[in-house]
Write a structure and sequence with these properties.
It is a single chain. With 135 residues, this protein is of the alpha+beta class. The chain has one domain. 36% of the residues lie in helices and 30% in strands. The radius of gyration is 19 Å and the shape is globular.
């Protein structure tokens, strides 16, 4: 018997993780849409213009958490460059973006983030810095 879900099984299980499905589809068509894909394709980190009008590049850092269930966490470092690109003026950090049982696992998970997700993290970090300066 065919069920409405197109299978022979009336209960196909939980729905797919739509973010993971979208990432996989995007990576198949645009390999440089994720941070890891961009690094592999262009051999350099992506650059962004922040909401403050300043140029930034991005890297991933990993540290231990002390939590046995999530022993390692990855976060993003955004380097703000001088307008001449001759030096780094400061850096901003994202919140935690990925976790893993090993540093490599946490970093690999962060490398799956899309460039859109990176830009959103950058803009959030800029907003946090602005709020902290206004206190």
């Amino acid at each position: 018997m065919d069920w409405p879900n197109g299978s022979d099984d009336p209960d196909p299980g939980p729905p797919p993780d739509l973010v993971a499905v979208a990432r996989a589809a995007a990576a198949a068509e645009l390999p440089d849409l994720t941070l890891g894909g961009y690094l592999a394709e262009h051999l350099r980190p992506p650059a962004f213009l922040g909401i403050d009008g300043q140029p930034y590049s991005v890297d991933v850092d990993v540290e231990e958490t002390g939590d046995p269930d999530r022993p390692f966490v990855a976060f993003l470092l955004f380097l703000r460059w001088a307008a001449t690109a001759q030096g780094v003026l400061e850096h901003l950090e994202s919140g935690d973006v990925a976790w893993g049982r090993t540093p490599e696992e946490a970093r690999a998970a962060a490398l799956e983030l899309t460039l859109y997700e990176l830009k959103a993290e950058l803009d959030a970090a800029i907003r946090r810095r602005r709020a902290a300066l206004e206190e």
